[in-house]
């Protein structure tokens, strides 16, 4: 029980089984070779990461989201009874760039409002110099990964409603047809259903 209290449970969001040794080696390296890190495979794509102390655990939590082989590794602190199908694994932290905001509206207050509209705000980053494409706002948000990722959203600011574009940083594998993480268009159930019904749409999420 004591070692569980300094552990994280991680679920790889993929319809393919991942290799235990692959994820052990990749995450140990990505996390800076934490001292005495133990990794246990619990069930299909579900792992326990046991740290020597809370310092190493907190460092990994702070760095979310994490990817393995471009699939999302959705991690949450261990709790008694937490399993791979627990509702908490339907949510994950992600960094989103919000574009098309008028300069005078770029602020942490507006960032919090947009973040809550997306599912929950965790952190806000306003780049000082923008980018060569213009000014944007970075939000670390909690989103429901069982639903299609939003690419755009209408947001009410003051007396106006504006359209904002959403760009995800370090985007995991996402189905270009339905917009949900963890599979591709070739294995997409929604696409298969639309093919059978004769209602096949063009890819909605790029190529």
TrEMBL record:
Domain Zinc knuckle CX2CX4HX4C: 143-188
Domain DUF4283: 2-82
Annotated Pfam families: DUF4283, zf-CCHC_4
Coiled coil: none
InterPro entries assigned to the protein according to its UniProt record, in alphabetical order: At4g02000-like (IPR040256), DUF4283 (IPR025558), Zn_knuckle_CX2CX4HX4C (IPR025836)
Domain of life: Eukaryota
Protein name: Uncharacterized protein LOC104248381
Source organism (scientific name): Nicotiana sylvestris (Wood tobacco)
Lineage: Eukaryota, Viridiplantae, Streptophyta, Embryophyta, Tracheophyta
Encoding gene, per UniProt annotation: LOC104248381
């Amino acid at each position: 029980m004591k070692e569980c209290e300094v552990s994280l449970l991680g679920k790889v969001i993929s319809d393919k089984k991942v290799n235990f040794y692959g994820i052990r080696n990749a995450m140990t390296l990505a996390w800076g070779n934490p001292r005495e890190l133990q990794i246990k495979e619990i069930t299909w794509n579900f792992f326990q990461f046991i740290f020597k102390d809370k310092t190493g655990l907190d460092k990994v939590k702070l760095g979310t989201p994490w990817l393995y082989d471009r699939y999302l590794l959705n991690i949450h602190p261990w709790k008694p009874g937490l399993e791979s199908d627990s509702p908490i694994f339907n949510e994950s932290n992600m960094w989103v760039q919000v574009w098309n905001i008028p300069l005078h509206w770029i602020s942490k207050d507006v960032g919090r409002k947009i973040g809550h509209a997306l599912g929950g705000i965790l952190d806000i980053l306003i780049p000082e110099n923008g980018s060569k494409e213009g000014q944007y706002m970075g939000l670390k948000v909690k989103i429901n990964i069982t639903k299609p990722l939003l690419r755009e959203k209408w947001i009410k600011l003051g007396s106006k409603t504006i359209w904002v574009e959403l760009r995800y940083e370090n985007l995991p594998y996402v189905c270009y047809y339905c917009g949900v993480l963890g599979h591709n268009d070739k294995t997409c159930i929604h696409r298969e259903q639309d093919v059978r019904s004769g209602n096949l749409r063009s890819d909605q999420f790029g190529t």
